[in-house]
Amino acid sequence: MTSKPLSVSFTIVILTLSTTFSLQSDQQKVLLVSFDGFRWDYLYKVPTPHFHDLLTHGVHVKQVTNIFITKTYPNHYTLVTGLFAENHGIVANDMFDPVLNKSFSLDHMNIYDSEFWEEAIPIWITNQKAGHATGSAMWPGADVKIHKSFPTHYMPYNESVSFEERVAKIIEWFTSEEPINLGLLYWEDPDDMGHQLGPDNPLMGPVISDIDRKLGYLIQRLKEAKLWDVVNLIVTSDHGMTQCSKERVIELDQYLDRDHYTLIDQSPVAAILPKEGKLDEVYEALADAHPNLTVYKKEEIPERWHYKYNKRIQPVVAVADEGWYILQNKSDEFLLGNHGYDNALAEMHPIFLAHGPAFRKNFTKEAMNSTDLYPLLCHLLNITALPHNGSLSNVQDLLSSAVPKAIAYTQSTTLLGGDHLGELGQEESYPYFLGVSLGCIIVIVFFVIFIKHLIHSQLPALQDMQAEITQPLLQA
Ligand SMILES: [Zn+2]
């Protein structure tokens, strides 16, 4: 063997190894923050200097299409799984599972039954299986045991714990001896005040200013801990908020006999479980009942909502028009602001900003889907994404050129059967596996060739040496 093929093999080995290791070095630290109910345009209601700082020095997506229904638990689970509600199984804040014969209710904090969460695997489990650590400061659902696992560090949900205490925990986990690479931070406002006041109320101004101050506090603490330049901070939310009015109430008692159904979830998407044999009667009684109410049998629910193929979606679903409120009786609790409506409505859309070494500077993007965040997070953390409904290629332009671009495959967002995820996802995993395998094969082949070459080139010298050793013996 001549030295030319040898040097070619050597170059290929170096190139393969460097590609493999450059993919591995693509790992970043990520802090995902959710300010519950922060509508995309709250940014412009009052001066929000800290949000605008992020916007100028990072990336901003104007319209994020979240998932239907635009409620808290379904959307927070989407952010960490990349799945539509029908696929991750958290289809509402209030649910009934007819197979488990169990209820789930945010109102009563009856949410800790693992079985409700186990149709999906949240990102912290995948992150930890890859050998990393995660920390959650009150992220919805992250204090539930899911597939026998919790985040490496987590705070059990307690709404009385201050924002500052939550931030302190996040900083502690990022700077510990075995630091986390993924932090999740949740804060209840401006959702709480948005419900009470309504988003159009001028008193929402101070509420938004307060959230801006909280963001400023977080940035300050990250800077003091020397994390600001190394952590990729993503600030988003689960949904927006729309103004309601007592003039826009749809009262179910006017159209339905309470003995004929159970109301599982109320407004603005009423989940109705008719009593046995009453399905058609309930459906027909509601179908033309009110001009601002659209009623679907489960199988008629529009495909674009990806809200059909799950046993927890009830046989009849009634959806109110934006700003309309569904109550059984007008004496029931009414809120001036609400969300949960059609996810095509801009007022339901959340904010999305990001800043850090992986992101471009001063870059604005028109639109993305909230399901796209999950593959983006997996890419940043250099972990293999599980099957999901998002697409890394939709959001890859948010990343700075300094970050080696992983190979992105456009995902099909075809409607999936609830329990049959098909073969979505696996972005990066296949090319990565292929790269590593090829690298190993080339290394083995190279060494075999190298050793053979070495033996051949050393053979004449060995023969000479043997001749030198044997000659004196012969002479003797
Ligand atoms: Zn919420």
TrEMBL record:
Listed Pfam families: Phosphodiest
The protein's name: Ectonucleotide pyrophosphatase/phosphodiesterase family member 5
Family to which this protein belongs: Belongs to the nucleotide pyrophosphatase/phosphodiesterase family.
Subcellular location: Membrane
Molecular function terms from GO: NAD+ diphosphatase activity; zinc ion binding
Species assigned in the record: Cavia porcellus (Guinea pig)
Membrane topology reported for the UniProt record: Single-pass membrane protein
UniProt KW Transmembrane helix keyword: yes
SUPFAM superfamilies: Alkaline phosphatase-like
Keyword list, A-Z: Glycoprotein, Hydrolase, Membrane, Metal-binding, Signal, Transmembrane, Transmembrane helix, Zinc
Cofactor(s) needed by this chain: Zn(2+)
InterPro entries: Alkaline_phosphatase_core_sf (IPR017850), Phosphodiest/P_Trfase (IPR002591)
Signal peptide: 1-22
Annotated TM spans: 430-451
Location (main, coarse): membrane
Cellular component, GO, one term: membrane
